[in-house]
Amino acid sequence: MDAQEALARRLERKKKLQEQREKELVEKQKQQEMVAAAAATGGSVINVAALLASGTQVTPQIAMAAQMAALQAKALAETGIAVPSYYNPAAVNPMKFAEQEKKRKMLWQGKKEGDKSQSAEIWEKLNFGNKDQNVKFRKLMGIKSEEEAGGSGSVDEESYKTLKQQEEVFRNLDAQYEMARSQTHTQRGMGLGFTSSMRGMDAV
């Protein structure tokens, strides 16, 4: 009889363990369904207190999923940018993702028509003294305005001074180039190491 009683007790324990395992599996499936439903609805917050009150065991994974959903909801409320569902919510910080998206939008949005810098206006007003050179320069610089540089009547004093300085620099560069050219072509054989006696030997 002792053997039969021991066998009956073992069977009862095994049956109880199996029932507990099945119950845990059912609870895990319910929790996973709740997490999946929360993720599908766009990051609605899982209420951990409600899970505890219902008697459901809260695992660390569920608590972390609830925390990530709360962060995503907060980021969505503050910035209006939601983290896409294909990102792992535990691996992506929703606030930093929103900042990156804002920077990306600012970087790739086009400039407005009236948005010109002061240097761009100076380049457009630059005058080389010749209309053809002005047109060529504008094409090379990618300036699309058809206006003449001298035709615009509203030239402020500062840009006028800059234009005058640039014209003076161009004149000086031209003069220096002509002087260097004349020295290299007309005064060959003169300079360090060349003396009049050596020049006389060349003539002989």
From TrEMBL:
UniProt xrefs under Pfam families: SMAP
Residue intervals of the Small acidic protein-like domain: 123-193
Keyword Coiled coil: yes
Superkingdom of origin organism: Eukaryota
Annotated keywords: Coiled coil
Coiled-coil positions: 1-34
Similarity comment text for this entry: Belongs to the RSRC2 family.
Name listed for the protein in its UniProt record: Arginine/serine-rich coiled-coil protein 2
Organism: Micrurus lemniscatus lemniscatus
Lineage: Eukaryota, Metazoa, Chordata, Craniata, Vertebrata
